[in-house]
């Protein structure tokens, strides 16, 4: 029995028990693998579950020793040894039950913990072993692969070696082929030379033969070689043939050169013609370019705004360009004069140079125009709505008017006809009677009906006209409102104005114009329909120009109301005499200072003045 | 003996606005041999050869004016420039006979004897005859005014060894001496040697004067692409070579204004040189596929009579009774791209059938007609103003001959069948010749006034009159 075995060795038995219990607990599904040790342990009885009296650890006799032993053991295990006290004094064992139980409990706990840890470790081990297995299989696979690769590598090495061998042989082949080609080429060359040599030899021989044949024929006095003519003919030109003399030779030469000369002359003439044509075209082009490009200071003041913008844009570089342009224009005239009779190198150069210059200018001008056009379209886009509506309105009005006019004409003719009929009735009673007889009653009825219809139409037209006038009045109201708004805007603008606002212009030259420019953005919006339609034609280049409608106050008017500028300035606004420009500049300065002072003194004062101005505007 | 002039009339469709004549009349057919029929330079007479007889007809009435009998079958016939004499050559016998129109009993017989004869021609003055002997031993110049005989030695046997200038003043002759090419320029008036110069050619193939008689174009044989341009006084003006190492020039043509020189070559291109710099202006290619949108492709379509007319037809003709059973043809404008029929030549053999072999400028310099040998049934018409393709005529069979009207921009062509084809900038027309069956037009030649055409068959000929409205 196992009992005797366990008694024989206590310590190992515990160990053994532990191991067996572990194996039983964890390896239970695979118990048969563990062989004899597990079968042995399965038959064994656990000491925990049953207390065996026969071979007990503690007996009545050795209780103190046991206790001592236990205590020692407990100490060594780290538990308080005070749990079990041996009361040696009384020679009886006094077991501290609570402590012992606690210890027991703790031991049990410990046991459980260790069991759990064991379990965990076992699973861990299992995992590890499986991982190990996996790794091993992996390893072996990789080894196989490695082997395979090695084999492949060696195979490839072999192939490479073979290929290199092949390359070497091919290279050798190539070399030999090249040699062959070279050889063949040299052969061909030699053959060619041989051939040409032979050909030459043959040709020489043939010529020699020909010579010989000729000689023979001449020597033989070939009787058959003859011309048999009834009578000799006169020359085609009727002249007699001439003796061959040096003079004749010279004449031939002369004629030849004459014909050559004639040809060259004809060709030269053709080229000249072409040249002059081309030059003409070039000059025309240049002229056009100059006229397009030249800044137009001679344009009337009423020119569109784009011109002014252009002027202002060009102003900076205009001095230089003017110079260049003048010189080029001079050059053009110069070259024009020259090309009339000769093609002077200098003139040609000048012409081409100036053309080039003009071309460059044209290009830059075009670019500028492009940018301006885009700007203008942008602006138009902003102001587009109103414009379109007005345009349509205008058209509609025009159409209506036309219709009214047509109807009027129609009515008039009708009336005339009626009158005629009446008069005819008067003048000739017989015929009238006849006619009256002829005209049936229903005819008259029809006429009446028509008359009524016309009356209705007329009424309709009257109504429409009324509605239109109403619309016009409404528009007028709207306009007024807008003007008021504008006036207020102007006021604000004026209030915000500082004397140092630069208008990107030479104010010393044309102050009024500078001012008008400054006031233009709003004028554009406020301009009348007529001005709008006119301005639309300039759309590509310009923004609408301010039209001086009595209802709209200009900046100058505003200034006048402010008593900043004397009346004369507004009257001479259009003219730009150099002297007056000077004058204006002084005015401008003064006005600036006054404005500044007003501004400084307080907004209230200025406001009242402005409101006064706007009132005046609304009155006019 | 007066001949009855029977005329068949061929009415063309009048619904079109083509600038062709509204009516074409055809004469009866006449016999001829060796395709020898020439209209006199003044346009009054028609000379034809029938075996060993020379027949001279009045072109208006077609009545026989003179009948001359030669010693043997006539191989070559030529009018003198003043239309007074006719030269008849019998090469085999080494004989040349000259006949006079004014004096029918006047005769002239030139016997070259045992030396043989390969070519005979009039000099431009109509008083000298140039005979080339066998083996090109020499050129004999026979004068009909004096007994004088001149020899010119060393003429070169080549494509075009001699050329007279258009004004008849000068003759250029290619020579070969000491294995080098030379050109001699003679004054035709008295055969004075004006210039003699060596040319930079390997193997000279031809010489040709510009129509204004001031520039002589000299070209090398097909082994080398080279054109040399010499002034009348022998100065080399320019030389042009488009490429090397390939077969070169096949044909050369001057425009009537001497402004352009067209060079057709084996690479199926025509190169146009200008007369100022002698540089290439343009290469005119002859591709097998046409997708040039500016060109009109006319395709000849044969149809049996009785088939309903097609809307696409450019021009169709109304048949008369005798032609009812012949095949009719018409032109159809093809929509691009068009694939043209190409015959692949054997490039390994000598003189392969490829490249531009014939070119002709219209009299007004505006158009150039060309033919590429690998597309034998196609004629190309180029606009010289924009140097581009204008029209392509695709025929059903190979084009034998084409010639421009000497007065109008009008091209006549024939393809060896019983039809005459005409092209003008306004369009194309195909006309069936109303002669009896078997008449096949082998070549065409215009009358100098441009209002009639000789259609030459194998052993017959027929005149075609164009009548303008």
UniProtKB/TrEMBL annotation, chain A:
This is Afadin- and alpha-actinin-binding protein-like. Residues 568-581 have a biased composition (Low complexity). It comes from Umbra pygmaea (Eastern mudminnow). Residues 127-137 have a biased composition (Polar residues). The keyword Cytoplasm applies. It is found in: Cell junction, Adherens junction; Cytoplasm, Cytoskeleton, Microtubule organizing center, Centrosome, Centriolar satellite. It comes from the Eukaryota. Belongs to the ADIP family. GO terms for cellular component: adherens junction; centriolar satellite. Residues 116-137, 289-328, 568-620 are annotated as: Disordered. Keywords: Cell adhesion, Cell junction, Coiled coil, Cytoplasm, Cytoskeleton. GO terms for biological process: cell adhesion. PANTHER family: AFADIN- AND ALPHA-ACTININ-BINDING PROTEIN, SSX FAMILY MEMBER 2 INTERACTING PROTEIN. Its main location: other.
TrEMBL record, chain B:
InterPro entries: Centrosome-WD_assoc, WD40/YVTN_repeat-like_dom_sf, WD40_rpt. Pfam families: WD40. This is WD repeat containing, antisense to TP73. It comes from Umbra pygmaea (Eastern mudminnow).
């Amino acid at each position: 029995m196992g009992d005797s075995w366990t008694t024989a060795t206590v310590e190992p038995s515990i160990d053994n028990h532990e191991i067996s219990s572990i194996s039983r607990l964890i390896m239970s599904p695979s118990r048969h693998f563990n062989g004899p040790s597990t079968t042995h342990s399965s038959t064994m009885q656990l000491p925990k579950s049953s207390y065996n009296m026969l071979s007990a650890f503690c007996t009545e006799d050795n209780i103190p020793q046991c206790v001592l032993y236990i205590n020692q053991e407990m100490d060594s295990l780290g538990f308080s040894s005070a749990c079990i006290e041996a009361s040696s004094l009384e020679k009886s064992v006094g077991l501290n039950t609570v402590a012992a139980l606690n210890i027991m409990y703790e031991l049990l706990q410990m046991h459980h913990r260790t069991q759990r840890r064991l379990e965990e470790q076992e699973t861990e081990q299992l995992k590890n072993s499986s991982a190990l297995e996996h790794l091993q299989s992996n390893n072996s696979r990789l080894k196989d692969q490695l082997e395979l690769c090695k084999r492949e590598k060696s195979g490839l090495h072999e192939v490479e070696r073979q290929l290199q061998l092949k390359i070497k042989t091919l290279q050798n082949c190539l070399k030999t082929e090249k040699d062959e080609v070279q050889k063949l080429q040299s052969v061909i060359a030699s053959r060619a030379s041989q051939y040409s040599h032979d050909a030459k030899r043959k040709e020489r021989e043939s010529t020699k033969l020909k010579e010989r044949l000729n000689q023979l024929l001449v020597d033989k006095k070939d009787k058959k070689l003859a011309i048999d003519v009834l009578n000799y003919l006169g020359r085609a030109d009727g002249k007699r043939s001439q003796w061959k003399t040096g003079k004749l030779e010279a004449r031939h030469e002369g004629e030849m050169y004459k014909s050559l000369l004639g040809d060259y002359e004809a060709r030269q003439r053709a080229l000249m013609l072409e040249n002059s044509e081309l030059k003409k075209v070039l000059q025309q082009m240049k002229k056009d370019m100059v006229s397009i490009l030249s800044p137009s200071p001679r344009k009337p003041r009423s020119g569109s705004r784009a011109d002014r913008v252009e002027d202002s844009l060009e102003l900076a570089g205009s001095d230089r360009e003017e110079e260049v342009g003048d010189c080029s224009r001079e050059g053009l005239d110069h070259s024009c004069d020259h090309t009339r009779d000769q093609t002077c190198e200098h003139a040609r150069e000048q012409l081409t140079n100036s053309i080039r210059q003009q071309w460059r200018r044209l290009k830059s001008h075009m670019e500028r125009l492009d940018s301006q056009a885009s700007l203008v379209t942008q602006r138009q886009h902003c102001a587009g709505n109103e414009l379109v509506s007005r345009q349509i309105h205008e058209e509609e009005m025009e159409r209506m008017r036309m219709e009214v006019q047509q109807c009027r004409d129609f009515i008039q003719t009708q009336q005339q006809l009626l009158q005629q009929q009446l008069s005819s009735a008067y003048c000739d009673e017989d015929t009238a009677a006849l006619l009256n007889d002829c005209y049936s009653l229903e005819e008259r009825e029809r006429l009446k009906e028509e008359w009524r219809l016309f009356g209705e139409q007329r009424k309709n037209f009257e109504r429409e006209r009324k509605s239109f006038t109403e619309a016009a009045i409404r528009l007028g109201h709207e306009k007024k409102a807008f003007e008021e708004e504008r006036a207020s805007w102007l006021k604000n603008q004026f209030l915000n104005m500082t004397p140092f606002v630069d208008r990107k212009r030479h104010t010393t030259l044309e102050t009024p114009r500078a001012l008008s420019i400054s006031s233009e953005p709003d004028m554009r919006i406020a301009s009348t329909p007529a001005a709008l339609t006119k301005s639309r034609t300039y759309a590509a280049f310009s923004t609408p120009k301010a039209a001086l409608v009595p209802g709209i106050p200009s900046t100058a008017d505003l200034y006048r109301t402010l008593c900043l500028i004397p009346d004369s300035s507004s009257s001479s606004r259009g003219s730009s005499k150099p002297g007056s420009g000077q004058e204006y500049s002084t005015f401008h300065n003064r006005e600036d200072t006054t404005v500044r002072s007003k501004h400084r003194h307080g907004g209230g004062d200025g406001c009242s003045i402005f409101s006064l101005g706007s009132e005046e505007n609304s009155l006019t | 003996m007066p001949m009855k002039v029977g005329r068949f009339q061929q009415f063309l469709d009048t619904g079109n606005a083509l600038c062709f004549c509204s009516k074409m009349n055809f004469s009866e057919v006449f016999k001829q041999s060796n395709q020898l029929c020439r209209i006199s330079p003044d346009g009054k007479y028609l000379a034809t050869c029938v075996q060993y007889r020379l027949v001279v007809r009045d072109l208006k009435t077609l009545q026989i004016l003179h009948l001359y009998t030669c010693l043997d079958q006539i191989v070559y016939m030529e009018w003198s420039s003043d239309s007074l004499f006719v030269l008849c050559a019998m090469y085999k016998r080494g004989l040349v006979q000259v006949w006079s129109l004014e004096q029918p009993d006047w005769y002239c017989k030139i016997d070259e004897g045992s030396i043989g004869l390969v070519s005979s021609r009039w000099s431009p003055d109509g008083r000298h005859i140039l005979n080339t002997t066998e083996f090109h031993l020499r050129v004999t110049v026979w004068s009909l005014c004096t007994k004088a005989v001149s020899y010119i030695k060393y003429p070169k046997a080549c494509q075009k060894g001699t050329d007279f200038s258009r004004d008849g003043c000068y003759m250029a002759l290619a020579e070969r001496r000491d294995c080098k090419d030379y050109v001699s320029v003679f004054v035709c008036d008295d055969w004075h040697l004006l210039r003699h110069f060596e040319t930079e050619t390997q193997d000279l193939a031809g010489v040709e004067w510009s129509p204004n008689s001031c520039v002589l174009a000299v070209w090398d044989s097909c082994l080398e692409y080279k054109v040399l341009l010499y002034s009348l006084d022998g100065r080399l003006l320019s030389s042009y070579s488009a490429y090397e190492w390939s077969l070169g020039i096949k044909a050369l043509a001057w425009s009537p204004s001497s402004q352009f020189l067209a060079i057709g070559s084996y690479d199926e291109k025509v190169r146009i040189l200008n007369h100022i710099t002698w540089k290439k202006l343009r290469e005119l290619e002859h591709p097998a596929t046409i997708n040039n949108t500016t060109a009109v492709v006319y395709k000849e379509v044969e149809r049996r009579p009785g088939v309903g007319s097609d809307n696409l037809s450019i021009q169709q003709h109304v048949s008369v009774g005798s032609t009812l059973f012949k095949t009719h043809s018409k032109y159809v404008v093809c929509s691009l791209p068009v694939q043209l029929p190409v015959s692949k030549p054997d490039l390994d053999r000598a003189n392969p059938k490829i490249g531009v072999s014939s070119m002709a400028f219209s009299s007004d310099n505006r158009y150039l007609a060309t033919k590429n040998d690998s597309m034998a049934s196609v004629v190309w018409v180029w606009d010289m103003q924009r140097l581009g393709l204008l029209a392509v005529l695709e025929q059903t069979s190979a084009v034998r001959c084409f010639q421009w009207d000497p007065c109008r921009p009008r091209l006549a062509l024939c393809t060896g069948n019983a039809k005459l084809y005409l092209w003008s900038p306004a369009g194309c027309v195909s006309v069936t010749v109303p002669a009896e069956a078997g008449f096949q037009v082998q070549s065409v030649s215009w009358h100098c006034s441009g209002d009639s055409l000789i259609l030459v068959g194998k052993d017959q000929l027929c005149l075609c009159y164009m009548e303008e409205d």
